[in-house]
Every structure is written in C-alpha cells, then in structure tokens.
C-alpha cells in the first residue's frame, strides 16, 4: 500500500485531495460550463447519477465529443434524449444551437425536476424542449415515426435492451443513434444490440478512456499547482471501464 492510498483511506472522503480539487473546480466555475461543446451554459448545483465537476469542466463523456457533430449533422428535425437526467444534453443541445426541437424522457422524479430547473436557468421553454416521463417502446416509436431526420441519444442503465429493438421500434431504422451500453447490468448486451442494429446501421464501438491532465483547462492557480494524478481524479466520472461504453450507429441508407 502506498502512502497516498493510506492517506486516502484515513481521511474523510470530502477531505481527500481529489474531492478537494473537485470542489474547487465547481466553486471556480461559478456554475457555468467552462469548456467542451456546451461552454457558457449555466448549470445547476447538482448532477443526477453522475459527477458535477466534469460537466462544469466540459470534459464529461469526452469520448463521444467527436461524434456529436455527426449526430447533429443536417441538422435533425428532432433530437430525442432518452435518460436525460438533469438535462446536460437536452438543454445543452438547444443552448449550442444544434437543433431547434428536443424531446427528452426522464423517469426519475428528482432528475425530471432538476431538468426543469436547468431549462429555466438557460431560458429554454417547453415549446423547444418537450420533457416527458418514462419512455417505453410505443412512445419511442411514436416520436421517431413523426420525425423526418431524427437523432437519438440513449442512456438508460440497461433498459436499452427493451428500447433499442427494431421489432418494437421499427422507426429506429432511419435514426442516427448514440447509445451508452451497460454490459455490467446485462452481460453481453452490447453484442446483442450490435446484432440487432447491423441490418440497418453501420455500428461502431466507442471505448471509454482515462482522462489526461491536459483535459482540464483552468486559470485557477491552486488547480494548476496540483499534481496531475489529482487533477485527473477531479475529472473522474467513476465509471466501470470494463463492460461499459458507447455505440455509434448510422443508418446505411442515410
């Protein structure tokens, strides 16, 4: 056991160097996203089932940043966000001007309320962002079937097994899709989803990657003085690297 790991075990979680760095990052941001695709977006004081600091730093889900322009190329006439949480992508998409209409599904009441709060904070009204509750296959089919060029993002902690099914939701066939899969919830799920979608889509895996010290852009003197290992931990999203990742799916007839 190293001295650093021993210190981490002995200290309360909030006193650990990485926790202090995360708190400092949040404070210095003024609750405005500092980088990434949604730089300048005002943010609430919490994140639902995710880490707040990476969202404010603009490094959240850095692996998919290069795919976002492809998802919103065109642009789509509607962006459907299933598992929207507090609205990082649902609100961020409208803030960035990538799409004029968003339909977001969020089943958790606390996250739903937080998304409403983020909408108000960024002056996004219901005429632009239609926030709904839980998503089921019939509702997803209805939304996608009524769109001309739909784009879909999905992060539903394993329920993608139910929703990403061309038999239940045939309108998926003409939809660009960015999906977070959770094989640690349902082993082998990503392989099954790849099999389901290959007849209609080009499917590409996107692997998770650890953060680098260069990912954090900050003018704060304390954060810049911290060792690289602590800065990386401040940006950590606490995700399992095994059995977890993303799939990018583009229709073959696009």
Show the helix and strand layout.
Layout: H1 3-10, H2 17-29, H3 52-57, H4 68-71, E1 78-82, H5 88-96, E2 102-105, H6 109-121, E3 129-132, H7 137-145, E4 150-154, H8 160-163, E5 176-182, H9 189-197, E6 201-206, H10 221-225, H11 228-234, E7 244-251
Parallel strand pairs: 1-2, 1-4, 2-3, 4-5
Antiparallel strand pairs: 5-7, 6-7
Describe this protein's structure.
Helix content is 34%, strand content 15%. The chain is an alpha/beta fold. It has one domain: Vaccinia Virus protein VP39 (Rossmann fold, 3-Layer(aba) Sandwich). Helix 8 links the parallel strand 4 (150-154) and strand 5 (176-182). The longest helix has 13 residues, at 17-29. The model has no long low-confidence stretch (mean pLDDT 89).
Distance between the termini: 54 Å
Q: How many domains make up the coordinates?
A: 1
Order of helices and strands: HHHHEHEHEHEHEHEHHE
Query: How would you write the strand order of the largest sheet?
Result: 3-2-1-4-5-7-6
Under the CATH scheme, which class? Alpha Beta
The total strand number stands at 7
What is the CATH topology assignment? Rossmann fold
Shape: globular
């Amino acid at each position: 056991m190293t001295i650093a790991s021993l210190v981490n075990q002995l200290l309360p979680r909030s006193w650990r160097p990485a926790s202090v760095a995360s708190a400092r990052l949040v404070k210095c941001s003024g609750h405005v996203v500092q980088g990434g695709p949604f730089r300048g977006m005002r943010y609430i004081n919490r994140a639902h089932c995710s880490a707040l600091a990476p969202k404010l730093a603009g490094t959240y889900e850095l692996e998919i940043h290069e795919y976002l322009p492809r998802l919103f190329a065109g642009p789509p006439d509607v962006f459907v966000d299933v598992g929207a949480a507090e609205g990082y992508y649902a609100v961020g998409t409208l803030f960035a001007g990538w799409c004029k209409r968003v339909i977001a599904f969020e089943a958790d009441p606390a996250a739903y309320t937080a998304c409403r709060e983020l909408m108000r904070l960024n002056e996004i009204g219901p005429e632009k962002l239609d926030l709904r509750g839980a998503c089921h296959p019939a509702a997803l089919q209805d939304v996608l079937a009524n769109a001309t060029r739909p784009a879909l993002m999905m992060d539903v902690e394993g329920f993608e097994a139910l929703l990403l099914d061309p038999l239940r939701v045939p309108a998926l066939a003409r939809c660009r899709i960015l999906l977070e899969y959770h094989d640690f919830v349902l082993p082998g799920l990503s392989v099954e989803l790849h099999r389901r979608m290959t007849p209609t889509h080009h499917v590409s895996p996107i692997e998770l990657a650890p953060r680098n010290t260069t990912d954090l852009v900050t003018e704060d003197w304390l954060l810049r003085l911290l060792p690289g290992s602590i800065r990386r931990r401040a940006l950590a999203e606490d995700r399992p690297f095994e059995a977890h990742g993303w799939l990018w799916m583009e229709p073959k007839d696009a």
